[in-house]
């Protein structure tokens, strides 16, 4: 009895995900998954609606599996994808921002004149905006602009703001015009960022005509905020006198410039040395200006940050703090944490303003600031943050101290990080092992091996001991620098202490031993992993084969695979070995190995064949792989797609 479409979708998706968990890397499409689907016998059930049911919702987070399954289904004779299957795979690819694949599929859709639902274009445009590909987003919008209302106000406003922010003001104006034409509601983010950038180079009359359009059009904009943005834009473009005139035009249209807008103009005149003009502006401010609404600006800045319009959030934040206008601590925290990713200097201004108001960053803000200062290599600023907060007695618990230790270590300030640990102890706080490990990692990264060893001794002397991460840090470092005896001693020490090694431990030590040509010792270490956990050994085997083959010891790699295939063998390990043999021109060795696999584990041959066939296109030496495929076909009882033979003929002609 045939399963229902829902049951079939569940069964197929589970089979794909389960099989992909065994692949390397996991959750990626591979030839072995096609074998799984063939064994499942689902080929006859395939239809565009079933493909869509499998992808959405089950494969949505796994773009490689979604796209692989989509293409695999299309191989069925007579199968043709429709809008429903295209929509599901485009949704998956948009979520994971696989732009090249999205573009290929959209070209197919256009060529086949397939009509997609507006929600697909909405997700694709949103994905391009998040991925900072605003021109691509505009090109998609331009093709389907008639669907603007269906695509939605939020997406259209996001695109409008993103294009303007990126300096694509001409494209932004076309989006604006289409939104007006289609009756799409404008909001403060979309229109605000657009008019902020547009007004700098536009004639005042043109800017006014846009404002009048918005007044007639359905919109959800804050007049005072729009007024401030226009005034700020004009002053940034050194059009201060025009900005002063424009205040009155804004007031007439009920845009209600607030004190901040007047202050921007006054300060711009002050910088020009026009004292009389400053007084005129201040007089108008007292007579006509309104108090800025802190909650309105709070909401607008949070919206800018959520839309990733960080340059605009930064500029507006600077306007507020430079005028010493009211701003909430939650807004300052948001500005410090987010703006530090693009402009650490500006983030430090917000941070110091916060401190001057006797407010303090949350731990999350401190973490974001610290991480971004490290990323931008602003170590002096990081130390400045620490000293300022320390002088204010900010550090009062283990969590805040640990965060600071972590960032100082990332910045390579090992001495300062160690000083923080000592300060913690003075204040009656016991550093946890993660802080010690962080410092240990920094010592190793900076090649400070003597301090690292002293830190090891201190960890034991203080009663903290060490854990798996401590061992891994040191084993990896000693293996990297060729001090393999030290690494082996640590490995033995952890076994004696009852600490189970993990994949990182084994791969670090195996790499070091192979580089030192100590293959038998490496073999003994690998056997330990097998004794510990067969699944762990299986995950390590591929990497071990790579390390051995890199050193050119093919006989040892063959012995390793032949000795453990029944226990932890996986087709991927044999494929890795065979590819190295092909690159080295070891054809006779590869053929002998294939024959051995065929006699001991014939079920692996189809998967090995599929993987070798897939590698032909990118191989610089296809001849050895073609000979391997021929040997596999002779050896295997399973019928094969022999299209590789055509490639063999082409190679001979060449």
Structure commentary:
With 654 residues, the chain is mostly helical. The protein has helices at 5-20, 31-40, 48-59, 63-74, 83-95, 99-111, 118-130, 134-143, 148-151, 153-165, 169-182, 188-198, 204-216, 223-236, 240-252, 259-272, 275-288, 294-306, 310-322, 329-339, 344-356, 363-375, 379-391, 398-410, 414-426, 433-445, 449-461, 468-480, 484-496, 503-515, 519-532, 534-550, 554-568, 571-584, 587-600, 605-615, 622-635, 644-653; strands at residues 186-187, 219-220. It has a two-stranded parallel sheet. Helix 14 (223-236) packs antiparallel against helix 15. The longest helix is centred in the last third of the chain and has 17 residues, at 534-550. The chain is flat. The two termini are 52 Å apart. Residues 638-654 have low confidence and may be disordered.
Separation, N- and C-terminal Cα atoms: 52 Å
Query: Mean pLDDT, rounded to whole units?
Result: 89
Name the helicity range: over 70%
Any idea what the shape is?
Answer: flat
Number of strands: 2
Radius of gyration over all CA atoms, rounded: 32 Å
Q: Give the strand order, joined by hyphens, for the main sheet.
A: 1-2
**How many strands, what sense, and barrel or not for the largest sheet?**
2 strands, parallel
Structural class: mainly alpha
Q: What percentage of the residues does DSSP assign to strands (E)?
A: under 5%
> Which regions are unreliable across 5 or more consecutive residues at pLDDT < 50?
638-654
How many helical elements?
A: 38
